[in-house]
Request: fold
Amino acid sequence: MNQLKIFAGSANRPLAKAIAKYLRKPLGKATWTPFPDGESFVKINEDVRGRDIFIIQPTCAPHNDNLMELLLFIDAAHRASADRITAVIPYYGYARQDRKDEGRVPISAKLVANMLEAAGADRILTVHLHAYQIQGFFDIPVDHLLPEPVFAAFYRKMAIKDLTVVSPDVGNVKTARNYARILGGELAIIDKERFSGTEVRAGNLIGTVDGRNVLIVDDMITSGGTIAKAAHLLKERGARDIYVAATHAVMCENAVARLRDAPVKLVTVTDTIPFCNEARQLRMFKALSLAGLLGEAIRRIHRHESVSRLFLRRR
Ligand code: R5P
Reply:
């Protein structure tokens, strides 16, 4: 592992430290203090010439600062003659803007991909993209991890009886079906309509949840509207306990309050994004760490070993 070096920006230090601990490697020395006028600045404070470099930085809020810091990190490593640079992006920001669905709008997820490649990234390691097709926005290899092994281990231990896995919208059906197979439950789907960034309507329910315990799975919680509306609908339709497994805890606006007021027993998320203090204080929220999964992926990429071994086998 001599040639492997891990660095991290400022976006999620606890996760980066946990990954470093898993790999039994220190985090590389670097400085990322902005200039007095707010411009980002990054300096790598150790030799990286000829090394296999992994830079850990989710591009969560503040998105532009974190993205810029990552780009500067990559550029610094590139100009310092690193042999290979992998951008480890546990949460890929701007992913929702992945197509031109009206006139005169950008495809931001593609622009970010272009910027990462232009800065000098050789590979990308990321987690649960909002749309899996974003992998194709890159012309460099992308390793796309899913949190299934971590959530599945947690919910298997809970051994929830009479389980129905619910997709809160049609976009997540495949994920929900996978969980239903892995955990041995039934599948139900909600037909969601989104009116704006914060307004959604949970319409029809395909499947039945009457008398069943429910696990809602989603890629992210942003305003909390999707999960809250889904939970109310499921309760109306006779669901018993409602659990949530959502990968990225974006948690903006009144997400925590919305979920606190919804008929949800437990909300599990991962640590791809630092968990907000408000949620940390409530027992109904639990963050599961992906440090082991990401650390193992880094080890395997470095050793040119299979990463698909980290995917869960379907039942
Ligand atoms: C939608 O396509 C996504 O999978 C999530 O359901 C959505 O981004 C969650 O957003 P919010 O929490 O604001 O409803």
Notes: Residues 63-79 form the longest helix (17 residues).
